[in-house]
Amino acid sequence: MDRVGGIVVAAGRGNRMGSPLNKVYLPLGEEPVILRCLRVFEESSLINSYVVVANHGDLSFCRTLLNSYSLTKLSGVVTGGETRQESVAAGLKALPKECRLVAVHDAARPLLEQKVLEGAIRQAADAGAVVVAVPVKDTIKVAEQGNIKGTPERSSLWIAQTPQVFQRTLLTNALEEARAVGFEGTDDSSLVERLGHAVTIYQGSYENIKITTPEDLVIARALLGLDTLDSNGRKEHLSSRTGLGYDVHPFCQGRPLYLGGVEIPEGSGLAGHSDGDVLLHALADACLGAAGLHDIGHYFPPSDARWKGASSLALLGIVRGILAKEGYYVHQVDITVAAEKPRLSAYLEEIRRRIAAVLGIAPAAIGLKATTTEGLGFVGRGEGIACWAIASVEHKGTPFPFNGKRPLYG
Predict the structure, then answer these.
(1) Alpha carbon 60 to chain centroid distance?
(2) Percent composition of the chain: helix, strand, coil (DSSP 3-state, to 5)
(3) Which domains does the chain have, with CATH numbers?
(4) pLDDT at residue 400 tops 70
(5) What is the reported pTM?
């Protein structure tokens, strides 16, 4: 079989999720949504390499997050375009030239089964173009202005999913032709259909859902068995532990200022190997301390080039994964930031929302205060910012067993 490349598209904005964080980076159990997709590509014997296409605004976050995992087949993280077609074209350009078959998959479909991915690839090796799809279960109505105009025969209707697999030359031609005439398709196969090339169906799974709204995350958790019940049908009892974190960073001219994952346009940034986000560093240490684990410097040492300039919001997401591997989940946090400048009141709500999204908890579970030191000490002299954080974590049963593969975090 020809060498096979994958394009995992994560360049959407996910406005319907209502989260300040792209839905593909939201936690789903012990890992973010996108990692569950990448695991399938990593573990498939048919996939030789793949690329991730990220939104421009998420590029630093995505690269930082993926750097923490042992993704041996990942050949790059590239910036997507304004449309899906532009994003797929960017991913196609970044794939190694020797990949002759291409599997395009939505990062928002985390429940893809390996047998579906590989079945579609094998079929595409012969057919040239394959769409994973499932038969429509419900009766479909065609309507105009609220009035039913027809009822199509259900047996001929299928719900298209991803992956969609194509010969590379065929997909390249389809993208170029669509761009030349300004055609925007609803999926990748519609571009190939325009060329008159037959597209075959590989029957997938109804569980291969796309995460679009908060309700979809609830469904995905249920399908994965993440919300387990005890013998009486009640949620398992969780034991709680608490940790304290403290960090301080001096101001550094010429750097942007990040606090809580939010870029503050006023004043200088903070010194540090990563983006210098003192608030998130203190919070990460509090979470790790609550679980009895090493501090943040152990997992992200300044001697490791992977973390130079890294997004601390992504680092917090990685910390959440570290805790989850040990059976711990963050339940509640309380944070105090001491800064003489800049004034932070206008940014606190957005900081709260971003932390909540990364940790997978409600914004109401996050206490966040900003204060000054009344002119006292290095903070009072405007030399830097200090932060204290307390995190409460809950332990769910026995820690996750080591799966015998190389460790995800080091």
Answers:
(1) 12
(2) 35, 25, 40
(3) 4-223 (3.90.550.10), 239-395 (3.30.1330.50)
(4) no
(5) 0.85
